[in-house]
Amino acid sequence: MAYIGKTPVIGNFVKLDAISVVNGQASYTMQNGGANFTAYANVNQFLVSLNGILQSPTTSFTVASSTITFASNLVTGDVIDFIIVLGNTLDVGVPSDNTVSLAKLTATGTKDATTFLRGDNTFAEAGGGKVLQVVQGISTTSVSSTSSTYVTTGLSASITPSSTSSKILVLTNFASQIATSSNTIRLTLKRGATDIDTSGDGFAKLRVTASNLFGNTPMNVLDSPATTSSTTYEAFFKSSSGNAEVMAGNSSGIMILMEIGA
């Protein structure tokens, strides 16, 4: 039932450690569990019994930090029966182990087996770097070109991001062959019709000083498409001089798309 009048103080009521009287001494250190006690707001929270008589705060004793000082020196034979400190308002003390349930928390969000309590006091799923999906594309058709402007390799893959904040990690690898000495093959990546590389220098290149070099040309790109629509990534290449071939020697090219949660 509700209280009539002023709501009682809710607090952590503490009985302090016993204090032995020293003849001719007025000031004593207050301790709780062997540690100096200062967890109070004012002297009126103290119930002090001396020789079986409750003492009047301020008049009979004062407190400062962890020290209680009686109005006059105590002598041999005096007994400090107890010192009890009434708790501060809303000071419930330290809860016992395993006594606070999730229902008592003020955190927001849904608490279940898939979420955790974050530092901002909200329940949320793990995020930031979580791989949400993986798709791949494969091409086994070789493509040759002498063009100094980008042409398609024929290697592509499509993905539909689950969030506009997701990033797409694009991993490609295929064999390339350069037939002309001092030729350079450059690779780039397009998202639809958009060239992701704005520098024009490409994301990867293979340059040699000997002819007919055959080797792998990997290209790894992290992209932010900012869409939840189906998105196609396609690898392109160009040659600085002479013929260049990708998916060379009847080899396969592979493109892997990984959606990374924000």
Helix content: under 10%
Main pleated sheet = 5 strands, antiparallel
CATH class of the largest domain: Mainly Beta
CATH-scheme architecture of the largest domain = Sandwich
Give a verbal description of the structure.
This protein is mainly β. The protein folds into two domains: 14-85, no CATH class; 131-260, Jelly Rolls (Sandwich). 0% of the residues lie in helices and 45% in strands. It has strands spanning 14-15, 25-29, 31-32, 35-36, 46-50, 53-54, 61-64, 67-74, 80-85, 115-117, 123-125, 131-139, 143-145, 151-159, 167-173, 175-178, 184-191, 194-195, 204-207, 213-216, 219-223, 231-239, 244-246, 253-260. The strands form seven sheets. Strands 14, 17, 18, 19 and 22 form a five-stranded antiparallel beta sheet that branches. It has a four-stranded antiparallel beta sheet with strand order 1-9-5-6, with no helix packed on it. A four-stranded antiparallel beta sheet has the order 12-24-15-21, with no helix packed on it. 19% of the residues are buried. The model has no long low-confidence stretch (mean pLDDT 86).
